[in-house]
Design goal:
Layout (H helix, E strand, L loop, with lengths): L8 E5 L5 H12 L3 E3 H11 L4 H10 L1 H16 L6 E3 L3 H7 L5 E6 L2 H12 L3 H23 L11 E4 L5 H15 L1
Parallel strand pairs: 1-3, 1-4, 2-3, 4-5
Helix pairs in contact: 1-8, 2-3, 3-4, 6-7
């Protein structure tokens, strides 16, 4: 039996950048497992009997909830037999700060393209989606500054940035696979 050693790759990016799709592709390609920070958030909301909106409001009022979920992510990153792929807005930062030797990918996609993807997936107006994404990014930036003293848009901790604005999901996956095959 092969023993896995810590996380192999973290995937981060703004909502609508294609991180979940990329994680699924990498897991299928390499036969790896993953942990999605957004799923942890949804599971915790469910465990508390709260809607996502209500749980988000709780997180905004009580920073111990975010801190707890981030500690869970960090612990999962350090597990020897944990998932090979971790996805969250801050998992690249956590791997960097914990000095985990792994590939840390940031998926960069323009505001307009991210909004277009959200509209295609969920419906709505493009201008409203752009505004909602910008508002969410601004709120997240303030929250992460207050909680951890970091800017989630700062790419310092990332070993690689994939510019995916004009890439389809297969092209983004091919770039990520090429990066990983250099070191795996």
């Amino acid at each position: 039996m092969e023993v896995r050693h810590l996380v192999k790759v973290t995937i981060s990016g703004h909502p609508g950048s294609g991180t979940s799709t990329l994680v699924e592709g990498l897991c299928n390609h390499f036969g790896w497992s993953s942990l999605n920070g957004g799923q942890l958030f949804r599971d915790e909301a469910n465990n508390r009997g709260l809607s996502l909106a209500d749980f988000g409001a709780l997180c905004a009022e009580d920073d111990s909830v975010d801190r707890h979920l981030d500690e869970v992510l960090k612990q999962k990153m350090l597990e020897e037999n944990g998932p090979e792929v971790m996805e969250s807005r801050l998992c690249g930062w956590w791997a960097y700060n914990l000095d985990i030797n792994c590939i840390r990918l940031w998926i960069n996609v323009s505001d307009e393209e991210r909004a277009t993807r959200v509209v295609n997936r969920e419906g709505g107006e493009l201008s409203q989606a752009i505004e909602a994404n910008q508002k969410r990014s601004a709120i997240d930036r303030v929250r992460y500054q207050e909680l951890y003293g970091l800017d989630p848009q700062d790419v310092t901790p990332y070993t690689h940035v994939i510019e995916a604005t004009s890439l389809g999901k297969e092209e983004a996956l091919a770039q990520a696979v090429a990066i990983l095959e250099e070191v795996v």
